[in-house]
Amino acid sequence: MEGDASIPAPAERLQEFRRRLVGVPPFGNFQSAWDGLAKVLEEVEDELTGIPKNPDTSKEAPPDGRMYPPFHKREVASGVSGVRSFRQRKHLTSFGENGAIEICELDKNRQPVLPPLLEKAGADGRHISDYRRSADEQDRTTAR
Amino acid sequence: MNKIEQLRDEFQERFPRGEFHITAPLRPEDQWTLDINHDGRHVTVDWTPPNHFGISEVSNESLYGEGPDEVFSNIDAVRTRLQGFLTSEQRPSPPLPALLARLRNERGLSQSQLARTLGVTQATISGIERRKDIQVSTLRRIIAALGGRLRITALFDKATYLVVEEHPNTSQDRSIGKLANSAPSRPPFMPFSSLDRKGELSRVRAVSQKVSKRGCVFA
After folding, report:
1. B154-189 pLDDT, tens per residue?
2. CA dihedral defined by B102, B107, B109, B110, rounded to 10 degrees?
3. Using CB atoms and an 8 Å cut-off, which of residues 3-22 of chain B contact chain A?
């Protein structure tokens, strides 16, 4: 980063990341959503912080003032068919098989705080919340 | 029982008022997380088999996707550190540049605002928050501007030395000798009246008069 511009606060950078990710065309599957999120986040952090990206992707990057995409070894059970979720320190990021993305903050009981920080529909227009709703309906039907 | 379950059970017994919860990964060889809520604080312990541990504090300043504040390869070290976090004001410390940025953000200060307080440029603060080396005097000033005091200790096998301790209401570092049982030892404070009673004050006065006659100056 050149000049004397102060590094924006983390909340502002997250907001900018959200704005740009929502703005790109929808992704069509899990892998393109995974790669797309990482690409947009990397661009935002390169532009706004100037902090070099940690090159070691074998483990989570130690805190260096920069935001990082989800780490592949942190996948947890999403409880919803067609959705993969990744736990971070204070966030839960979910990807749909249709390319949908959702990022939620976690409360102290590890429950996602709603509304999500970021919601992006997949190529078919469905959000992660639609997957969840379908799963709930299916559960209710099975219970009957 | 795996290592993270072992830690949970041990600490649950020691801290019955705390809340302990394990999030298992989808694949058991991946990263497990133990969330601990105790006395209003939220600490996480990560474990990737067989021996990779991380400890972090979860706060409003936690950045999206950042890794653990401290990493360990030995469960005993995790036990010791965790015990310290849950029984004292100790907090997990990320690498220094990230710690300084986090402390600044927690206080709602931009780099420019902190720079103005210290009389330096924003670029200086930006540089400090990116590099690992920093002069002790600079670190002391930043910590003071953020409302804290700097203390540096040197640890050896059988001794601990307090290398730098910033005292309240002073702006000087103090180099201090060996600490007994890691507790700071301070030179005894002796008031002038006590010196006078022992007759030492008159001896000091006599010496200073001699020095003065010889044209010496105390620095």
Report:
1. 999 889 999 888 877 655 444 444 443 444 444 444
2. 20
3. 19, 21
Query: Domain span at residue B102?
Result: 95-148
- CB within 8 Å: B71 and A61: no
Q: List residues bridging with B48 in a β-sheet.
A: B52
How would you classify residue B39: left for phi > 0, otherwise alpha for psi between -120 and 50, otherwise beta?
Answer: left
Query: Please, what is the angle between helix B136-145 and helix B111-118, to 10°?
Result: 110
Closest residue in chain B to residue A110, using alpha carbons only = B35
Nearest by CB: A89 against B24, B44, B102? B44
> Using the 8-state DSSP alphabet, how is residue B19 labeled?
E
Q: Which amino acid is at A129?
A: S
ipTM of the complex: 0.89
CB contact under 8 Å between B66 and A73, yes or no, is no
Q: Are residues B21 and B74 in the same domain?
A: yes
> pTM of the predicted model, to two decimals?
0.80
Give one DSSP letter per residue of A25-70, joined into a string: PPP-SHHHHHHHHHHHHHHHHHHHT-PPPP---SSPPPPSS---PP
B44 belongs to a structural domain: yes
Q: How far apart are CA A100 and CA A88, in angstroms?
A: 18
Nearest 5 degrees, angle CA B4-CA B68-CA A107?
A: 80
Number of structural domains in chain A:
1
- Give pLDDT tens digits for B67-114: 999 999 999 999 999 999 999 988 999 999 999 999 998 899 999 999
Domain count, chain B: 3
Query: Which of B87, B113, B129 represents a domain boundary (last residue)?
Result: B87
| Count of CB pairs separated by less than 8 Å, A with B | 128
